[in-house]
Every structure is written in structure tokens, then in C-alpha cells.
Design a protein that fits this description.
Number of domains: 1
Distance between the termini: 43 Å
CATH superfamily: tRNA-splicing ligase RtcB
Structural class: alpha+beta
Strand order of the largest sheet: 1-2-3-4-5-6-14-13
Strand content: 25-35%
């Protein structure tokens, strides 16, 4: 097959797993989808391709707009989308980052094995659910006043270190060492701060979770050893973001940009792509506010990890250090960052928008933590609560192909409404426990139904494509033991 017919769109096969929507009309660049035909069938079943085409209209976009193998319809910009936009002549788009700024994942290692957990799954899941705030609304591991929140927004995980919620190694194993430069708390509205102030250290709702997992497969022994992973090992995966604060930052700036830059908005096919020209007041303000929200999210996940260490220490009656509960890595997958990339032989600074896409820098890149620089950046890709998750490393072709990016998860197949009409939460919990020995606890059955395994694409196929293309190489696979959700 040399072309793929997706109704009004015809994609041309560039090579295996790379499909291109040719540049035409007002498109500034072509669009590319990285997928197998099986995944392409699913990606073309919603508005993802139309949204990807719309993205090519953004001023300053370079090379091509990209959809990762897990792509699905989002707000204006497809989830699983990547766009590199010139940081001097282009734009920055809040919709191309998303409402949950720095939604991301971190993996916590242990020296426990699956046999250490068996028989204690219910005790562990109950203790985690009791200790870690989840669900809609307020409640967090810590309650913050205005001054404390300002510090969190400015200093990120450095604040958590000073307050005893982190150790030095935690910063060394986090993207940007847990502190995003250029954060401007003054650019974050009072309403956003009020929403976030009581939510610091909480999972939230929707697809956010904390999951205890066991390593089932190792694909690259040398890299796994560098990451500190081995078969049968117990790890913990935390997936959440900037809660109400990040949502409000996106809401505020979408509204302000729509009002201030109507002329630009009229040039775009979808107002949800509302963007501020690089160098404008709103572009600078949004970038500062977004970086502050990024810092908030890193502290949020750090506090959840701190509480997880305490729970394990209590359940297993051992100090968390004795269980070697060390951070493997924390990486964002809703973010826009200034990065330097080679475009037509010249280095250029870009706003790299990754929405539902993970940074995946290859070995040798200077922004990778020193511990991993020789092997490549860890990439963490969660699956559904009934399927495996993956640890990858940045692939050698990622910089040339995807602005140093790969997928961020399995990607949804069903809307939340459709999922609730298809599944009954209690039945999903019972089936996972009885058939897979996976213990799930959530605020409501509706949450479980919305996140049922059948709601998601095949994460194995998503990761296979990443590996085949050399943008993110498989290192290890994990499988759920117990899971808490909002």
C-alpha cells in the first residue's frame, strides 16, 4: 500500500510506518502520522487528521506537524501531536499544550520483587488510597499559603528538597532537574493560584493514577541495568499534572489571546488553536505562567512520591531507603519548551509543543541527566490499568524525525461518555482482580468505567512502532499489581 484513504484525506506512504499529508492550500508544511495501518484505522476514526492538518497553519511551524502512534482527537491540537515552531518568527499556542500543563509520569524503583507484594495487594492499595488525595476538587498532601505557593511556582522541586519532601537524587533524575527556568508566578492569575493552593500533592481525576507494577520483560539488558531495572522488580508509576492551576492558566490565556490577537485567529482554521506571536506580551506572559505551572506539576508528583515512600515504609515496616525507593525519571508530556533543533542544516530555537507526546532525547544529548547521558533519556509510556506499561530510551532517530519526541501512552479509543455506556465500573474491577490479579480502588465506579482497558488502543502496538522507527527504543515492560484512581 502506497497511499491510505481516510475519507477526505489521502495519506502518502513515505516509508514503513510514516504517512504524509501533502502540503496544499494554506498549509505551511506537510503533516505526518507515525503509525501502522492498524493504528491509522483508529486515528482516522475521529477528528485527529483534521486537527493535524489545522496545526500546519500555525505561523512559524517547521518541517511538518506530527501525530505520534497514540494520536487521538483533542482540543484543537490532537493529543499525540508535536509541532516545532520558530521561537522568533512563529507563535506559542496554549491549545497545543493543553489544559493539564505538565501532565506527565514518574517511575519510582524499589528492590522489592513481586513475591514480596503477593498476598498484601489489598492492604497496599487501601493504604495508598487512604494516604494520597485523589478525585475532583481540593485536598492535597500539603496545604499552602500564598507565599509558599509562589515559591513552588518559582523553584519547583528545589522547594520540596528544602522542605524535606525530596532528596538530591530526586532532582538529578527529573526532567530539567525539576525546576523550569523562566517561571513567572506574577503571570499566573489569582484564580489559578486559588485553585491550585489546596491541591498540591493530589492525583486529581480522569486518567490520572498511581499504579504499583512489576517488571515482566527486559528487552535491552545494558540499558535496563543503567536504569536500575530487572525482571520481577516492583516499581511505582505516578501519572498526574498541574491540577486546577494548570487548567486555569490555559483557560485564562486562551481567552486573552482570542481577544488580543483576533487578526491571527482569523487566519487559523480553528479558534482552539489560538496563538500569541513570539515576542508579544501575551506570548511572554503565557510562557512564564506555563513554566510556573510546570514547576507546580513537578512538585505535585514529588509530594505524591514522598507520600508513597511513607506508605511503603508503613506497610512493609522498613525504611524507604532500605527498599531503595529511588526515582528512575520524571518526564512531562503536555508542554511547550524552547529547544534548539537543526532545521535545513542550521540550528534554530523552537517552541516545541508536545501535547500527549514525550520528550525522547537520544544518548549524548546535553540535556539528559548525567546518569543516563551515555544510554539515552528514559521515556515512560503508561498503558491502561489492564495492560502493560513501558520504559523506553530516546532513540537515535528522534531528533531528525520528531523533534526528539515519541508517544505518551496507549491513546483513547472511546470517549468517556461512550465508555460509561459500555462498561460498569464494579464489573471492570472484579474482572481485573479475578482474571489478572490487579487490584483497583477509585473514588467511583464511573471513573473505573471511563478508564476500562477496552477504552484504549493497544499500547504494545504503539510502542512497537516507536521502537521500529528508532524514536523511542523499548527497554522494559511492566504489568499492573494495584492501581488507585480519582
Amino acid at each position: 500500500m502506497t497511499t491510505y484513504d481516510a475519507g477526505e484525506f489521502t495519506l502518502e506512504k513515505v516509508r514503513e510506518y510514516v504517512w504524509e499529508m501533502p502540503q496544499e492550500g494554506d498549509m505551511r508544511v506537510p503533516a505526518r502520522v507515525l503509525a501502522s495501518e492498524e493504528l491509522l484505522d483508529e486515528i482516522s476514526d475521529d477528528l485527529s487528521l483534521q486537527q493535524l492538518k489545522n496545526t500546519t497553519h500555525l505561523p512559524g511551524i517547521q518541517q511538518y506537524a506530527l501525530a505520534m502512534p497514540d494520536a487521538h482527537q483533542g482540543y484543537g491540537f490532537p493529543v499525540g501531536g508535536v509541532a516545532g515552531i520558530d521561537a522568533e518568527t512563529g507563535v506559542i499556542s496554549p491549545g497545543a499544550v493543553g489544559y493539564d500543563i505538565n501532565c506527565g509520569v514518574r517511575m519510582l524503583k524499589t528492590n522489592l520483587t513481586y513475591s514480596d507484594i503477593q498476598g498484601r495487594e489489598e492492604q497496599l492499595v487501601d493504604a495508598l488510597f487512604e494516604a494520597i488525595p485523589s478525585g475532583l476538587g481540593g485536598g492535597g498532601v500539603v496545604q499552602t499559603d500564598v507565599d509558599t505557593l509562589e515559591e513552588v511556582l518559582t523553584r519547583g522541586v528545589e522547594w520540596a528538597l528544602d522542605e524535606g519532601y525530596a532528596v538530591e537524587d530526586d532532582l538529578a533524575h527529573c526532567e530539567d532537574e525539576g525546576v523550569r527556568p523562566g517561571a513567572d508566578p506574577d503571570a499566573v492569575s489569582k484564580k489559578a493560584k486559588d485553585r491550585g493552593r489546596q491541591q498540591l500533592g493530589s492525583l486529581g481525576s480522569g486518567n490520572h493514577f498511581l499504579e504499583v507494577q512489576r517488571v515482566t520483560d527486559v528487552y535491552r539488558e545494558d540499558v535496563a541495568e543503567s536504569f536500575g531495572l530487572s525482571e520481577d522488580q516492583i516499581v511505582v508509576l505516578i501519572h498526574c499534572g498541574s491540577r486546577g492551576l494548570g487548567h486555569q492558566v490555559c483557560t485564562d490565556y486562551l481567552r486573552d489571546i482570542e481577544q488580543a490577537h483576533q487578526g491571527l485567529l482569523e487566519q487559523l482554521p480553528d479558534k482552539e488553536l489560538a496563538a500569541a506571536p513570539a515576542g508579544s506580551h501575551l506570548a511572554e506572559a503565557y510562557y512564564g505562567a506555563m513554566n510556573a505551572a510546570i514547576n507546580f506539576a513537578w512538585v505535585n508528583r514529588q509530594l505524591i512520591m514522598h507520600r508513597t515512600r511513607e506508605v511503603f515504609a508503613d506497610v512493609f515496616d522498613r525504611d524507604w531507603r532500605d527498599m531503595e525507593m529511588e526515582l528512575l525519571y520524571d518526564v512531562a508530556h503536555n508542554i511547550a519548551k524552547k529547544e534548539t533543533h537543526t532545521i535545513e542544516g542550521q540550528d534554530r530555537e523552537l517552541f516545541v509543543h508536545r501535547k500527549g507526546a514525550t520528550r525522547a532525547f537520544p544518548a549524548g544529548h546535553p540535556e539528559i541527566p548525567a546518569a543516563y547521558r551515555d544510554v539515552g533519556q528514559p521515556v515512560i509510556i503508561p498503558g491502561s490499568m489492564g495492560a502493560g506499561s513501558y520504559v523506553l530510551r530516546g532513540g537515535e532517530h528522534s531528533m531528525a524525525e520528531t523533534f526528539g519526541s515519541t508517544a505518551h501512552g496507549a491513546g483513547r479509543l472511546m470517549s468517556r461518555t461512550e465508555a460509561k455506556n459500555t462498561y460498569w465500573g464494579e464489573d471492570v474491577q472484579d474482572d481485573l482482580r479475578d482474571q489478572e490479579q490487579i487490584y483497583v480502588k477509585a473514588e467511583s465506579g464511573a471513573t473505573v468505567a471511563e478508564e476500562a482497558p477496552g477504552v484504549y488502543k493497544d499500547v504494545d502496538e504503539v510502542v512497537r512502532i516507536s521502537d521500529e522507527l528508532g524514536i523511542g527504543d523499548r527497554v522494559a515492560r511492566t504489568f499492573p499489581v494495584c492501581n488507585i484512581k480519582g
